[in-house]
Write a structure and sequence with these properties.
Largest sheet of chain B: 6 strands, mixed
CATH class of chain B: Alpha Beta
Number of domains of chain B: 1
Strand order of the largest sheet of chain B: 6-7-8-3-9-10
Strand content of chain A: 15-25%
Helix content of chain A: 40-55%
Number of helices of chain A: 23
Radius of gyration of chain B: 17 Å
Shape of chain A: globular
Number of helices of chain B: 8
CATH topology of chain B: Rossmann fold
Helix content of chain B: 25-40%
Distance between the termini of chain A: 33 Å
Oligomer: heterodimer
Largest sheet of chain A: 11 strands, mixed
Chain lengths: 816, 230
């Protein structure tokens, strides 16, 4: 049995849907794209708004991660703490210790917190195993997913330390803990076996509390734990609020961008669906009149026309949800890496709320014209198409007719004024599409500029190092905008952590390091050398900042390797330092102030001469002249070759000299874009394409409606001699004005949106933006983007315009 | 005598299995002739008019208008041909409601590329000739049926077509307006305009036409010219 029965109503609805196939398909497709856009945008907005909270809830994250002294608190006593008032759940005790593993190339990783757990699950902190399997026996280790990389993969062997007799470990999996309770996991017995005097085993307990949403509640909960064991048994705790803060900072950069696209997508979806549905009902007035004339009641007419709009719309909504999920899943999986490797999926309520909202929008959009149709007097409805139209658009026709353009064009230019509401909807669709395109172009250009500015070393034609890069283990990938974990120890090469210090206890192979003076000599003696500068990336202490911070020290003229400057200038000699924005904030200094910098035993007072553009998260990196620190030596030489000299040939010649010394020479290759930048660019492109498609469909629908309504007039025009080409130009001209206006509105709006969102993204990672990152639009580009509005409008109108041009004149003349 | 219309064995079938809606029909209309096509509903009058206007193509035979075989022309060429050689007046006027009377009349001229000034001058002459100049800036919705049909005829004549096709030109008019339009067509015929008039109204046909073609089931039941020749 049909949804609307087999009676008269069912027949009317079915024939209405079937007869207007193009419109039915347009309603379904436009609704599908709008819903899909809204699902994608909504999912990303949800993911961006609370990535940590989502992951934390999913994993039943630990509100307090506590370390106890097993000598003072037994496992039984710790188990009892799980039953304290206010404790909702607990897990543990798990043995935990610190290790600093060495990879197969002999390089040490940062110190890792290793926890012994027999599996990833539990009442608290259900660790998400991203790849591989869990450690099942001694000798196996699961690492945090952020450590995964070319040098560290599943099956890679490691040693637990640089000691000669350090036990081997095999990486069997990578996992993520939203609560950051560990950097690595192993079987409990393995952890006990790895404990040493310097790294004793502690008992880790994980707790969830009934109340843990504020700092004061966490402090109170901690007090309860401390009071439940003997004094001194609680060694330390980690609050989930601190973990959340760090994680949110990591995701913060993408939030404004995703929010902007999400808002654009949702607004466009509402506009398009409303105009498609209301237009579909509004153009059926004559048929409505006939139905009323043969006995349909006003309410039956309303229901019939609601149904005719709702059937294709519901099909579109269902398909849109499916498509939206299909598109959102890969985007969210990309977003996972942005948000720290925690699995994200389309929130269930997005899949419910978006179609529900779409149904409401569709229902309202159909109801208003359907009610109007229901109230329409029968005789008036029947007269539609028979009696002359009056009023709207006549002045516009008269005015446009004066333009020195072909008559079909001027006739088309006046058409939008006949249906101001429909024109407004079409204009908004084009304008929003143009906003999206302009914003996306600006965003991707800015991201490219950021990517380029973040790797100034790559500008050098040839890079000569004092070590062989192949022997260098890559550092753990930094979390986006957040802490990258422990910085590598001082004295290392630029490419990664330094070789393991030679010690009495260490018998592992020490990588050979070439004498910088000999490497420098190899560079200067090459006839193809145009210019070069030396560089060392190291750690320094700065008065007023606790701990060490990263520093790049330069030998020679380093302007070719300078960072983009937000203000001030790059270092030009001794006594100068360039610092990032966060350094100025943290030390409450400004350009012109001086800071005391200590490298090993050398201390220098340096004047801040510039503010560098640096998006490397919360880690601070300053740039100074190597001449200020006598003990510093370059580990890398960045070389510019003379014109006409092949960089490859040059590198081969230098490598032949420095490789026997322990160094190497390679040509500068285009660095791959940062993963986050690529992901954001990919998101921008996909979301923009979706929004432009929705805009195009909005235009398509409006022009289909318009062409249908005007088909009789077009038939008249053709009968009096309008050629198909002139008909095509008439219909295309009718959207050209909308395209131009949409472009004129959309480009400045997209430009403004870019100039609002980019600085917010910058502030989220603690930096201002330099002009080359912000001022990315070329005048020609803006002009082309403005024409993009015309292109969107033209593409949307092309199908109905072609249809109008091909329509048979006698058929069009008979059309009512 | 120069023939404006020549139909050679023209037939039109809408249903390949069924009988033809028109023909086979062979017919000539000379320059200056006024042909009235009459017949009951479904007799093929409108089909004949559509074929002569190039709005439809015959299933068989050749349609030659103003010396040119039009049944083989492309849509583009047909449009050009129509605006240069054929003027059409319809039962329901088919004026464009959002254009003024002047703009409606000028439109076919402007489609041919005639300058706005020349088109306006020609429209002015026609409005004066048809006594509608006082409505020049009015919109069709404000005119009476007879006035609208005058506007439609003026539009049909703006490019000085070799042939004027009128499809039930008085069908939607009251008696007085119908009389008005009849006089107009008689004047045009007297001025030498070749006219093909499709009508149910035998009085109109008698008054305006120099020749009457009566169609029944797609075939010529009576041709006053042939009868006269015999």
């Amino acid at each position: 049995m049909s949804l609307f029965g087999t009676g008269a109503m069912g027949r009317v609805v079915r024939s209405g849907v079937d007869r207007r196939r193009v419109q039915t398909v347009v309603i379904a497709v436009a609704t599908m794209m709008a819903v899909a856009s809204a699902v994608v945008a909504g999912s990303l907005m949800v993911a961006a708004a609370a990535p940590f909270d989502n992951a934390f809830t999913k994993q039943r994250g630990s509100h307090i991660t506590a370390q106890f002294d097993p000598a003072k608190a037994s496992a039984a006593e710790l188990a009892k703490t799980g039953k304290l008032p206010g404790v909702a759940a607990s897990a543990g005790p798990y043995p935990s210790t610190s290790v600093r593993p060495v990879d197969r190339a002999g390089f040490q990783l940062p110190t890792l917190t290793l926890v012994g757990r027999s599996g990833p699950d539990g009442a608290v902190d259900r660790v998400d195993l991203k790849s591989g399997r869990w450690a099942q026996k001694p000798g196996e280790i699961v690492l945090d997913a952020s450590l995964e990389g070319p040098a560290l993969g599943i099956g890679t062997p490691m040693k637990t330390s640089d000691a000669k007799d350090a036990p081997p470990l095999l990486i069997v999996g990578f996992a993520v803990s939203a609560s950051k309770t560990a950097d690595a996991w192993a079987a409990p017995a393995q952890v006990d076996a790895l404990a040493s005097k310097g790294n004793p085993v502690a008992s880790q307990m994980l707790y969830r509390f009934d109340s843990a949403s504020t700092k004061w509640q966490i402090i109170a909960d901690r007090k309860k734990l401390a009071a439940s064991v003997v004094p001194g048994a609680l060694l330390g705790t980690q609050s989930w609020l601190d973990t959340k803060r760090a994680a949110d900072q990591g995701a913060a950069a993408t939030v404004p961008f995703v929010m902007a696209f999400g808002a654009l997508g949702i607004v466009m979806s509402v506009i398009t669906v409303s105009s498609v549905i209301s237009g579909a009902v509004g153009t059926s007035l004559r048929r409505i009149g006939i139905l009323k004339a043969i006995g349909f009641t006003p309410s039956e007419v309303v229901r019939a026309y609601m149904a005719q709009a709702l059937i294709p719309a519901v099909v579109g909504i269902v398909l849109g949800v499916v498509l939206g999920n299909l598109l959102a899943v890969p985007l969210l999986s990309d977003t996972e890496s942005v948000y720290g490797g925690v699995s994200l999926s389309v929130a269930w309520w997005v899949d419910v709320a978006v179609p529900a909202a779409a149904l409401v929008v569709v229902g309202l959009a159909a109801l208003i014209p359907a009610l109007r149709a229901g109230r329409l007097r029968t005789v008036e409805a029947i007269a539609v198409g028979r009696t002359p139209r009056t009023g709207r658009g006549q002045c516009a026709h008269r005015a446009m007719g004066l333009l020195p353009l072909p008559r079909p064009v001027t006739y088309g230019l006046a058409t939008p004024f006949t249906h101001p509401v429909r024109t407004l909807a079409m204009l908004l669709a084009v304008a929003f599409g143009t906003v999206a395109a302009t914003f996306a172009v600006g965003l991707t250009s800015s991201l490219n500029a950021i990517g380029t500015s973040q790797d100034p070393e790559n500008r050098a034609a040839v890079t000569v190092t004092t070590t062989k890069p192949i022997e260098v283990a890559p550092p753990p990938p930094p979390l986006v905008g957040g802490d990258a974990g422990d910085p590598p120890p001082s004295g290392g090469s630029d490419a990664g952590p330094p070789p393991v210090e030679n010690s009495a206890a260490s018998t592992s192979k020490k990588p050979k390091v070439a004498d910088p003076a000999k490497v420098r000599s190899a560079v200067t003696s090459q006839p193809g050398t145009e210019s070069y500068y030396g560089k060392a990336r190291t750690e320094v202490a700065v008065a007023g900042i606790s701990g060490s911070i990263r520093a790049s020290l330069y030998e020679g003229d380093s302007r070719s390797g300078s960072y983009e400057m937000i203000s001030g200038h790059w270092i030009t000699g001794k006594g100068q330092v360039v610092v990032p924005s966060r350094f100025l904030e943290r030390t409450s200094t400004k350009i012109g102030d001086t800071v005391r910098v200590t490298y090993e035993k050398d201390t220098a007072t340096l004047r801040i001469v510039g503010e560098s553009f640096d998006t490397s998260g919360s880690q601070l990196e300053i740039h100074a002249d190597m001449a200020d620190f006598t003990s510093a030596e370059p580990s890398t030489f960045l070389v510019e070759t003379k014109p006409g000299v092949s960089a490859d040939d040059y590198a081969q010649k230098v490598a032949a000299v420095v490789q026997p010394l322990g160094g190497d020479a390679t040509t500068g290759s285009e660095s791959g874009q940062d993963g986050v930048i690529l992901i954001m660019a990919a998101m921008a492109v996909l979301l923009t394409l979706m929004l432009i498609t929705v805009a195009g469909l909005g235009v398509l629908n409006s022009v289909v409606l318009d062409t249908r309504e005007r088909i009789h007039d077009l038939g008249v025009c053709k009968a009096i001699g309008m050629s198909p080409r002139q008909t095509l130009s008439l219909v295309l001209a009718s959207v050209a004005v909308i395209g131009v206006t949409g472009g004129l509105l959309g480009v400045p709006a997209g430009y403004a949106l870019h100039h609002v969102v980019m600085p917010v993204m910058g502030r989220a990672v603690g930096t201002s933006l330099p002009s080359p990152v912000l001022e990315v639009y070329e005048p020609v580009q803006l002009l082309l983007l403005g024409l993009g509005g015309v292109v969107i409008a033209m593409l949307g109108a092309l199908i109905p315009a072609g249809w109008a041009a091909r329509a048979r004149t006698d058929t069009a003349l008979r059309t009512e | 005598m120069h023939q404006v219309i020549e139909l050679e064995g023209v037939a039109k079938r809408y249903d390949s299995a069924g009988a033809p809606a028109l023909g086979p029909l062979t017919l000539s209309v000379a320059k200056g002739e006024a042909l009235a096509v009459t017949g009951p509903s479904g007799s093929g009058k409108s089909t004949l008019l559509n074929l002569v206007a190039g709005l439809d193509k015959p299933t068989d035979g050749a349609v030659i208008v103003a010396g040119r075989r039009i049944d083989q022309l492309s849509e583009h060429a047909l449009a050009k041909f129509r605006r240069e050689h054929i003027g059409m007046a319809f039962q329901f006027f088919n004026l464009l409601d959002d254009l003024t009377v002047t703009d409606n009349i000028q439109l076919p001229a402007q489609l041919t590329g005639t300058s706005r000034r020349k088109a306006a001058a020609r429209a002015g002459d026609l409005m004066e000739m048809l006594s509608i100049q006082k409505h020049a800036r009015a919109y069709p919705g404000r005119l009476s049926g007879g006035e609208r049909q005058r506007v439609a005829v003026a539009r049909a004549l703006v490019n000085r077509p070799a042939l004027l096709l009128a499809d039930e030109p008085t069908g939607a008019l009251d008696t007085a307006s119908g009389h008005d339009v009849r006089n107009l067509l008689m004047d045009l015929h007297r001025a030498g305009q070749t006219i093909v008039l499709v009508t149910h109204d035998l009085t109109l046909a008698e008054a305006c036409a120099s020749r009457t073609l009566h169609l029944v089931d797609g075939h010529v039941a009576l041709d006053s010219y042939a009868q006269a020749v015999r």
